[in-house]
Amino acid sequence: MNINRLLISILALFLIAIVLMSGCLESGEEIKEVVIYVAHDQDYSEPILKEFEGETGIKVKTLYDTETTKTVGLVNKLIAEKNRPQADVFWNNELTRTIVLKNEGILEPYCSPNALEVPDIYKDPDCYWTGFGARTRVIIYNTDLVDKEDAPTSILDLKNPKWKGKICIANPLFGTTASHVASLFAYWGDDKAIRYFNDLKENDIKIVESNGMVRDLVVSGEFYMGLTDTDDANDALVENKPIAMVFPDQGDEEMGTLVFPNSVMLINNGPNPDNGKKLIDYLLSKKVEKTLSYSKAMQIPLKPGVEHPENVPDVDKLKSIPVTQEEIYNKLEVSQKFVQELFIR
Amino acid sequence: MIQRFRVNLRLLLKILTFLLFFIIAILPVFCIFLSNFSFELFSVFDERLSSIFLRTLILCLGTVALSLIIGIPFAFLLEYTDLPFRSFFKIAYLLPLLIPPYISTIAWLEFLGKRGDLISLDLPIYVYNLPSVIVILAFSFFPLVTLITSFALRNIDSRLEDAARLLYPQREVIRKITLPLIMPHIIISSIFVFVFSISELGVPALLMVNTFTPEIFAQFSAFFDTPRAIALSLPLVALIFIIILLNHLYLGRKSFVTISSFSRKGKSIKLSKTYKLIALAFTSIILILSVLIPISILLLESRLQFLIAFYEAFEPIINTLQFAILGATLMTFLGFFLAYFYRSSFDPIILLPIAIPSMMMGIGIINFFNTDMTSLIYNSFPIIIIGYMARFLPFVTKTLSPFFEQIHPSIEESALLSGSSFPRILHRILLPLMKPGIISSWVVGFVLSIRELSTTLLVSPAGLQTLPVRIYTLMHYGAPEMVSSLSLILIFLIITPLILLLTVRRLILKLVIT
Questions:
Q1: Is some CB atom of chain B closer than 8 A to the CB atom of A222?
Q2: pLDDT at A50
Q3: How many CB atoms sit inside 10 A of residue B87's CB?
Q4: Which of B398, B425, B394, B386 lies closest to B409 in space, CA to CA?
Q5: Nearest by CB to A222, which of B114, B215, B329?
Q6: For residues B474, B479, B480 and B486, what is the CA-based torsion angle, rounded to 10 degrees?
Q7: How far is CA A147 from CA A239, B232, B431, in A?
Q8: Which of A23-32, B406-415, B490-499 shows the lowest per-residue confidence on average (mean pLDDT)?
Q9: Is A72 in contact with B222 (Cβ distance < 8 A)?
Q10: pLDDT at A26 over 50
Q11: How far apart are CA B231 and CA B44, in angstroms?
């Protein structure tokens, strides 16, 4: 066959393929839409976003995060897109990275009417972000290997030589573990925190890949106990695996545990700001908090009077470490550098 | 000497090819590097980092060594001997490459440890160490070695070997003639395995071994310190650069020209009964360990929920297939001309992208393409394809270039003297001779693209998800049935085009011979 004809026909096929595929491209002008980046698990967030779509007719385009320990891809992406934002809303599943975004100037303040009932400690005073549906740090232990009497009730129990080499935590550089470490540095001060982690290192604490992995390893018995988040623990509890979940340090004299809500925020100069505000209002509704609490993520509603199942604690009965988000954020770098030096070598 | 008025098309193509390559793969990284450079970069290395770096080096060299030990004999058995069930092994050996190492690690941990629901041996071996990482990675990456070596072996002019065999025993022939001839391919595949081992995140993390690439990622993701992340990447970039330079120096002097006017398929060595059994045991055990066991575990864990998984992840599945096919085709196209026009002296530039950590590449691409002019690319699927091309063009190109090296320039020159135009030379001489190279490089591009994760995560526009991204999303909160089912679907997606290609290749060979 003539080479030219062959080349031309390949080119033609190629162009036709592109044209066919571009039929899938949204043009964006005729359809009402909103773009949201979601750090919360897809399985829980997708249904809520689909309901929003159904109720308002606004098409929701989502981008999900994956291994929050590994990539924090969405936060990096938001920062990289600063000069030409592609997203309208960011649904984060914790607060520390939210503060990072605020300080980078990525956010736009929006005082949603649905934010009024959220307690002050769980929202930004200048309306840059609002919290909803919280999780906490918990200790989990394997009930076949640890008796109830010996069970840990405080994170200080993790120093006990009885459990040497039997405790695991997720990589303290990322995600909620990093926030937890920073909160301890903020609450205790650097010296006491450094001593605590050195003690943990003496006690042969192991770093594993993620909170989910902590759960799996405690379930299988390869470790006796570990620190993880409520939703990861609950994944095992609903399957009746042999573990128990403890909210640590809840006693009268004790410091409480780290409570971290989802946070939702408006991105500065996003493509569809009005639809973004509507989506934020929707996500801050009591209905959504109720849905999140009944989900496997068992998220704790922050607003008063939201119906929730038995296993989800009341937010006012839960003792949380008395530090502000800003204080945690300020300790982030120094705490990360320390744990990196100590544990990741 | 090229005829004057033909120079236009050829020169145009040459410039265009380089320009495209430069814009896609080099420029984005260059820009982000320049905008983040500072002189404090040179003081980042301390005792902790040095020991991590050393460990990573040992890991990668060990993986390369083991991959060669497994991969080269495998290739020889497939191409040179009458190994029983050869046609089966010729397809089967690619399978380990299609199973992401992360997934096979999890499968193995469940099998050996306490975690599996249905099967677990609960062996007392401690596997959370460096040798385990080397073993898992080598078993995943050896097919790269075998793939490239096999194609090399298939295309050696057997007359050289036949002549040598008249005088020397088989073993000497292999040592003195065959191995040197396929050396460029062996070295290229070693470089690929090395680069893959360095950028592997999941396996070392699962097996609790601290390596260097997670350090770079930590700077991006935990500290949001881009300049420091770039500073840390520099030793890696430098290291790979040195390897490339050594490769260039070592091979630059020798001549590997063998394809003159034609090449024949050589005679296979007949193995005695004992050797046949040993060979069979070798190949079977490798495949059982690297394929059969992980896949069986995946099957068990999936509880056969394929239909549900397929329905749930329909869109990512279709996306992934489309993007990988398109990406591989474009890469082969561009890579062909890149390999043709720019021979080994340009190696350092062509191979530069592989030294760049995937996350840095992703951020560079975002920065570069997120403009009003290029919004059509940025906000839809082309950006994902650009991600693939930026990362994998070097692999595709370098898979092709040894084949070009084996074509003697006199073939083209005699065609030019007879008055042929460049398109005609392309069509009549280069393409037919390069067919095996084109096919193998398409396969390399396809397989690499379809399982790509880290760059895709960053550049994906909202609303577009690929299958690897979906699988990793699910892995986070423990949905083992879905993860296993989708992993098996991913593996299936890769196998089907491969099988199609391999059968088509047989047909082409048959046509060529008759």
A1: yes
A2: 93
A3: 11
A4: B425
A5: B114
A6: -50
A7: 20, 46, 72
A8: A23-32
A9: yes
A10: no
A11: 7
Residue B209 neighbours by CB under 8 Å, 6+ apart: B55, B59, B128, B129, B130, B133
Nearest CB among B218, B378, B476 relative to A173 is that of B218
Q: What is the mean pLDDT of residues A83-91?
A: 91
Q: Cα distance from B244 to chain A (closest Cα, Å)?
A: 29
Give A208 to chain B, closest Cα distance, Å.
Answer: 6
Long-range contacts, A158-161 (Cβ 8 Å, 24+): A158/A200, A158/A203, A158/A205, A158/A225, A158/A227, A159/A196, A159/A199, A159/A200, A159/A203, A160/A203, A161/A203
Q: What is the DSSP letter of B332?
A: H
CB pairs under 8 A between A and B: 142
CB B3: neighbour CB atoms within 10 A? 13
A220–B113: do the CB atoms touch at under 8 Å?
yes
For residue A220, what is the nearest residue in chain B, using CA coordinates? B115
Q: Using CB atoms, pick whichever of B363, B462, B469 lies closest to residue A66.
A: B469
Residue with tokens 């990284």, as numbered in its chain: B29
Structure tokens at B191: 């470089």
Whole-complex ipTM? 0.72
Q: B284: Cβ–Cβ under 8 A, 6 or more apart, which residues?
A: none
Reading the block at residue A325, the tokens are 């988000």
Q: pLDDT higher for B341 or A16?
A: B341
Residues 6+ apart with CB under 8 A from B164: B172, B173, B176, B177
Taking CB atoms and an 8 Å limit, are A41 and B476 in contact across chains?
yes
